[in-house]
């Protein structure tokens, strides 16, 4: 579940060409042109073209997880990004204008927005329309691709499952041609008797072969458990006779067993260094901070906080510079990881992640305020920066902070 979880120029190009489009891992987070005015309700100062809705959703989820009430202008900015059909694009510079055929809505932005708006409350109509749209673009195998009509992938299917749960739906009851989202995930699980058994693939390759993908595995573990981006720790698993059992892989006949298998694969992968490595070409030996944070959430959700202890400790000791360079989505990912694994986000390796996140966007409310009063106070800047120009990244694979786990997920190269 990634931070700039979701895309760069490659996405726009892929959509135009009609190919499967997927987000890159948090690509470079350069500052926008000094002449550009960003919307006042948006978190972060980097170009939001490819990750505006994703990073806003993560920021709101992180604040809600910490018991904060996000600023009205922040939640309203996110809600106003929605198209009339219910879907969300990665970012719309002019939300006052109707979406048209050129507006690329996607499942990941939509599902993340549903989770955030459902968490903060008071947006039932918006989340209901978004869920209806997600159901309308479900694939016949029960899953979802990044864009409507694209082949199902583990990350997109998982984040939609989280949205369905957040909106009060039962994912196993959301079916297409008799197939549920869990059916789609199970088809992407690598059998235990094969190489990297227990892991999940992002998608099958052209020959139908499944290749293990750590980011997809972290996402799929949460999805198979029916949990979302802000998952809390599950029950402590693997305890027998006072000792922690080694995680093992077993025949995945149920989503729960598939989640346990995925967690076992992540545990083995993290055993040596405590972190995942980047999948970006030329950076395979570099730590992937975002995907490691995602793995912490997945491990804690599946087997309890103790199961995520090693990667959590590594993040506490090593993630500060990455978070500073990467911005609000990175701070949010770390907050969600700390929360899931029982750590204190306000003292995470000596860093107050909550204060750092809050500093990148509208100040959260200290207590619940009258929405009418808040709306009146923000009226003058509701439309501030809506003429934000499209500012393209110079290089698709320029990355500041290798790999952010679940928006811009490095998915193109994982296929």
TrEMBL record:
InterPro entries linked to this entry: Prenyltrans, Terpenoid_cyclase/PrenylTrfase
Record's signal peptide: 1-27
Keywords, ordered alphabetically: Membrane, Repeat, Signal, Transmembrane, Transmembrane helix
Domain Prenyltransferase alpha-alpha toroid: 57-198
SUPFAM superfamilies membership: Terpenoid cyclases/Protein prenyltransferases
MF annotations from Gene Ontology: catalytic activity
Keyword RNA-binding: no
Keyword Cell membrane tagged: no
Transmembrane intervals: 390-409
Name of the molecule in the record: Prenyltransferase alpha-alpha toroid domain-containing protein
Native species: Streptomyces spinoverrucosus
């Amino acid at each position: 579940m990634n931070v700039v979880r979701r895309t760069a120029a490659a996405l726009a190009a892929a959509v135009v060409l009609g190919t499967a489009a997927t987000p890159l891992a948090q690509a470079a987070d350069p500052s926008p042109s000094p002449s550009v005015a960003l919307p006042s309700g948006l978190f972060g100062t980097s170009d939001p073209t490819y990750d505006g809705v994703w990073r806003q959703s993560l920021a709101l989820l992180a604040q809600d997880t910490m018991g904060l009430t996000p600023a009205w202008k922040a939640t309203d900015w996110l809600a106003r990004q929605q198209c009339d059909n219910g879907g969300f694009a990665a970012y719309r510079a002019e939300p006052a204008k109707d979406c048209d055929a050129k507006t690329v809505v996607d499942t990941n932005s939509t599902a993340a927005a549903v989770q955030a708006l459902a968490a903060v409350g008071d947006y039932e109509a918006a989340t209901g329309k978004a869920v209806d749209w997600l159901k309308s673009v479900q694939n016949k195998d029960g899953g979802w691709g990044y864009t409507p009509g694209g082949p199902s992938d583990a990350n997109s299917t998982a984040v939609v499952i989280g949205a369905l749960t957040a909106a009060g739906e039962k994912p196993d009851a959301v079916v297409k041609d008799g197939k549920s989202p869990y059916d789609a995930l199970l088809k992407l699980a690598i059998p235990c008797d094969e190489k990297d058994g227990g892991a999940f693939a992002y998608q099958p390759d052209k020959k139908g072969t499944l290749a293990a993908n750590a980011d997809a595995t972290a996402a799929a573990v949460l999805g198979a458990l029916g949990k979302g981006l802000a998952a809390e720790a599950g029950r402590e698993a693997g305890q027998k006779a006072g000792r922690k059992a080694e995680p093992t892989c077993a025949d995945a006949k149920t989503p729960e067993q598939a989640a346990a298998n995925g967690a076992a694969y992540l545990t083995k992968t993290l055993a040596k260094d405590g972190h995942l490595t980047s999948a970006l070409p030329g950076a395979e030996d570099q730590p992937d901070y975002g995907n490691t944070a995602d793995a912490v959430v997945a491990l804690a959700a599946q087997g309890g906080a103790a199961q995520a202890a090693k990667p959590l400790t590594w993040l506490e000791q090593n993630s500060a510079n990455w978070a500073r360079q990467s911005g609000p989505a990175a701070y949010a990912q770390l907050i969600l990881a700390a929360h899931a694994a029982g750590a204190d986000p306000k003292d995470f390796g000596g860093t107050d992640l909550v204060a750092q996140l809050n500093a990148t966007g509208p100040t959260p409310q200290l207590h619940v305020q009258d929405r009418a009063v808040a709306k009146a106070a923000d009226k003058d800047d509701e439309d501030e920066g809506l003429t934000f120009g499209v500012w393209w990244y110079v290089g698709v694979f320029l990355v500041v902070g290798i790999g952010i786990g679940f928006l811009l997920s490095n998915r193109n190269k994982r296929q």
